[in-house]
Amino acid sequence: MSPQEQAEQRRGQRLLFVTLLFGVLLNFPLLAVFNHNGRVGGIPVLYLYVLLTWLALVLLTTRLVQKSS
Length: 69
What we know:
Structural class: mainly alpha
Mean pLDDT: 92
Number of helices: 3
Distance between the termini: 19 Å
Strand order of the largest sheet: 1-2
Largest sheet: 2 strands, antiparallel
Helix content: over 70%
Strand content: 5-15%
Order of helices and strands: HHEEH
């Protein structure tokens, strides 16, 4: 297996890990932890958690894809 093929395989494994990680982070048990009446800067905690988790997913995925190109 060539070094480029190995790098592609590692990238695929990392992207799969990111997918599974964020699948867990955006699943019911953790969402229930943040589902209360609290607010941060006027934004409900649950909305802020989902937004920041989504932003982290986008940034991490972008970094993984651009790093290997």
